Amino acid sequence: MIFDIEKIRTDFPILGREVNGRPLVYFDNGATTQKPKQVIDAITRYYADMNSNVHRGVHYLSQISTDAFEVTRRKVQAFIHAKHEHEIIITKGTTEAINIVASCYGRPFIDAGDEIIISAMEHHSNIVPWQMLCDEKGCKLRIIPMNDNGELAIEAYKSLFSERTKLVSFTYVSNALGTVNPVKEMIDIAHEHGVPVLVDGAQAIQHVAIDVQALDVDFFAFSGHKMYGPTGVGVLYGKEELLNKMPPYQGGGDMIKDVTFEKTTYNELPFKFEAGTPNIEAGICLGDAIDYIEGIGLDAIKAYEDELLAYATSRLSEIEGIRFIGTAEQKSSVISFVVDGVHPYDIGVILDKLGIAVRTGHHCAQPVMDAFDIPGTVRVSLAMYNTKEEVDALIEGLKRALNMLL
Known about the structure:
Blueprint: H1 5-10, E1 18-19, E2 22-23, E3 25-26, H2 37-49, H3 60-80, E4 88-91, H4 94-109, E5 115-119, H5 128-137, E6 140-144, H6 154-159, E7 165-171, H7 183-192, E8 197-200, H8 212-215, E9 219-223, E10 234-238, H9 240-245, E11 256-259, E12 264-266, H10 280-296, H11 298-316, E13 322-324, E14 334-339, H12 344-353, E15 356-357, E16 359-361, H13 366-371, E17 377-381, H14 388-405
Parallel strand pairs: 3-15, 5-6, 5-7, 7-8, 8-9
Antiparallel strand pairs: 1-2, 4-10, 9-10, 11-12, 13-14, 14-17, 16-17
Helix pairs in contact: 2-10, 3-10, 4-5, 11-14, 12-14
């Protein structure tokens, strides 16, 4: 399929609106992506045509809702190349997926004195759950350092392993730096020591093709809203043998086979980890987002976004006093920067007045900001519907902002 940017842009209704009397330029895709009309229409269609609880009813609406929900599970399985559909756990998002592993794998299998390896570039969602586990169990976090370019030190990573290492968890793509980590190499290193690996794929799933079997990753987490789907839905992939060993995350409906006051028998995978009524509409419509991405093709998306990233980086380099935070050789769709003498927040406010949406602050990655000794950055995060013309508008807006602020 030919990558038709104009056609793609017409699929996203919000891109046609104005902000402060100017055409919207949306560069906050790392926080959440906009939704194509195909997904928006699917949300409306769910509530208009099939709204009913899933996995519980024999009536028609419940059956068609359940079927649609399970179709999404199979679409996710195919999208990330999982071996079994029951290895796909539908969650609220990446954060819940990581917390499930911290709770249901960490509590039973990690003890006092054991160690968990994470990286210096993690989102808070891949730091705090492990800190909570360490506080509870008396285990310890070990941190993979990164260099001044925002790249992980692989030799230092290798040196962190010992007989006490019980889990490794790191991001595929840094939300604050755009760094693409050498995921396969890092997984292989961990497996040489017999250590399972969780990969936070929240910033990768919409940009690069994922094959969990080829990666041999043990757990993989991502969110629907960062891949043009609804909010409030995500996925935890886990290898069958690990998920079967883990206890449930929550108790309630759908995660049980049989309940008496004396004993409860838990349900089989994947339902053991899906207690209560899920976000049914979002779960179903995540499948429509996958259909949309696959209709364009991730290879075509990546090629376009890589070209746009190079163009945006080049144009931003024209700005006097700019300093890029995160200059890794391998990057994906994120540019973070500071400008000498100007607070990132002030830049963001003025750009907003010009209809340009960027993210400012620490991006839920305060340790990254501490490593670079800065309070935060301006983050420009790109998606497949962004254009070079929008980058040009950003450059003109940034120049105008700096003329006011300096």
